[in-house]
């Protein structure tokens, strides 16, 4: 709806396939803006990986203003700016710009340049505020972009972060139905279902089967389990997935 209101999608939806990323942005953040900060935006911000640690106790998040696709002349058009009393959060969304880190359609350098421009944009137009720039993307394409930009000399006045849609899905699973508002719980439930439909209900965790010695399984969501036997004892309780 937001994407159509802002003219990113035609009234008939004839260009929807070309604007799927804009539609995704509008659908997700257009719903999130109606959830109170403590139940929606703040839990997400708290799990973002930042270049420098962020103290959200210093950031006044009350009454945020959501600004979609505002154009800034030489700096282009950023997907979303969330402006608060003493801070500004720039958000760049990736959805279908590639499916894996081996996908030729992922131009890491172009994305670096894009985020570099947006960091300069925030520094120039919001000088008196705490400035944050966050990349929201599937883990497979967002993580390599983020790892590259950490090595660049981006504007030091802007703290850059990354969060994957897979992590947001896992977060929503844990916070859904915990708000005091039935209305907000319905929105969060819809967002959870929306991300699931989009395919972001990915890797969960490794678990050990305590009833069978030397036997472990890998659970990939609720769809299937891969079992394997091991030949020696393992003392570790947790495993990393990379």
Can you describe what's shown?
32% of the residues lie in helices and 22% in strands. The protein contains 7 helices and 9 strands, in the order αααββββαβαβααβββ. It has helices at residues 2-5, 20-32, 41-45, 108-125, 139-149, 165-175, 182-197, and strands spanning 49-50, 65-71, 77-83, 87-93, 130-137, 158-164, 205-208, 215-220, 224-229. It has a 6-stranded mixed sheet with strand order 1-6-5-4-3-2. It has a 3-stranded antiparallel sheet with strand order 7-8-9, with no helix packed on it. Strand 8 and strand 9 (224-229) form a beta hairpin. The two termini are 36 Å apart. The relative contact order is 0.12.
What's a quick, concise take on this entry?
The chain has 242 residues and is an alpha+beta fold. The protein contains seven helices and nine strands; from the N terminus they run H-H-H-E-E-E-E-H-E-H-E-H-H-E-E-E. A hairpin with a 3-residue loop joins strand 8 and strand 9 (224-229).
